[in-house]
Write a structure and sequence with these properties.
The chain is of the alpha/beta class. The chain is 36% helix and 15% strand. The chain has 10 helices and 14 strands.
Length: 366
């Protein structure tokens, strides 16, 4: 590696990772092709493509975890983190990861949390329609009506630019990974995001000296065994508020108190309004005492939460933390990374508050 590890050498290959999803599905009914069949087909199609996307060269990073993204677990997220980390240690820096769309925004946001402080370049993409035309059975051909080929080429171009950070590229657009959410279940323009992201999207290092890079890598390698072990037990729960008596959400929260410290997302109305009761307030205090970290988010896709309304502000006096403008996938990803990365509830809470404070989205305790 050169002394300045962030200088993108245009001769360096892009590492392409295939993880499954609609992108590689084929047939009637649609089902994922095995890696043994799909990857040689994709390699052949890319080699036949005569344009600038194939320069720099594309290499393939072996991945043993190929599954429908709706089945991904925290341990699977750590698998991709470790796969990318090992390649990054070997000097690779630019990656394109093809995944299913169900949890694509969750995976992208998780990788953004995990690689904050590095100069890695990761582009996550997928498709709403398969790459291959299932009407053609004599050979594998690109479906001209699919979004897969365009999404892949856009992602390769973005990775070739080498800008530090984790991005999601889809439908002709790209965004910092922790601002992205899926907003349509079958339209080709299935995702949206925004460019004004706060921590950790702006925590990637554009010019990372080799010594600092090595320190970052050393830290990650020391922590990796603990991260892998904790992934088996880490749990994130979401409690969705509905027009019910407060006892309903209280009973759901009570059922989690006996579990090991976990992450809990309260999905409130509007700007984070939550039905109030003295009993629920007491339960939130008890959840905090027992090491759970409770984050309030909005059911609305945009805008986040605030303490403007008394109907929502009361919870922040009982150790609930505001999710600010973070999306639900980003909140999940940050909670999961804190559970994996830090060994005590106090350190997890402190780190969350520090992160949100940097983003300018914290709600001050009155």
């Amino acid at each position: 590696m050169p002394s300045s590890a962030t200088s993108k050498n245009l001769s360096d290959p892009i590492q392409l990772i295939y993880a499954g999803g609609t992108f590689g599905s084929y047939g009637r009914p649609l089902a994922p092709l095995s890696a043994e069949v799909f990857l040689p087909t994709l390699k052949k199609l890319l080699s036949e493509q005569d344009n600038a996307v194939t320069s720099p060269a594309i290499s393939w990073l072996d991945n043993t975890l190929i599954k429908d993204s709706s089945q991904l677990t925290p341990s699977d997220f750590v698998h991709f983190y470790q796969l990318l980390l090992n390649a990054y240690i070997q000097g690779e820096r630019c990656f394109v990861l093809i995944s299913g769309t169900d949890t694509l925004s969750y995976l992208g946001a998780f990788l953004a949390e995990a690689f904050a402080g590095s100069d890695i370049c990761i582009v996550v993409t997928g498709s709403m329609r398969p790459l291959l035309n299932s009407e053609v059975i004599q050979s594998y051909e690109i479906d001209d009506h699919s979004d897969a080929w365009g999404n892949l080429n856009d992602s390769l171009r973005l990775a070739a630019a080498g800008e530090s950070g984790v991005k999601i590229s889809f439908g002709g657009e790209s965004w910092p990974a922790q601002t992205v959410q899926k907003i349509h279940s079958h339209d080709l323009m299935a995702f949206t995001g925004h460019s004004r992201a706060a921590y950790p999207a702006n925590s990637y290092i554009r010019n990372l000296p080799e010594t600092r890079r090595q320190h970052w890598l050393d830290d990650q390698q020391v922590l990796l065994p603990n991260i892998t072990a904790r992934a088996e037990q880490s749990k994130i729960h979401a409690l969705y508020c509905l027009p019910n008596d407060a006892s309903v959400i209280n009973n759901q929260l009570q059922s989690l108190l006996s579990q090991p410290p976990c992450g809990i997302i309260l999905l409130g109305f509007g700007a984070g309004n939550i039905p109030y009761s003295d009993t629920l307030a007491d339960t939130l205090n008890l959840a905090h005492k027992q090491g759970h970290i409770v984050i309030c988010a909005s059911q609305c896709p945009f805008g986040g939460v605030s303490d403007s309304y008394a109907a929502g502000s009361w919870q922040y006096d009982h150790h609930v933390i505001a999710g600010g403008r973070l999306t639900i996938p980003a909140i999940y990803a940050r909670l999961l990374w804190l559970l994996l990365r830090y060994d005590s509830p106090a350190r997890r809470r402190q780190r969350w508050l520090n992160n949100v404070s940097q983003a300018g989205t914290s709600i001050k305790k009155r």
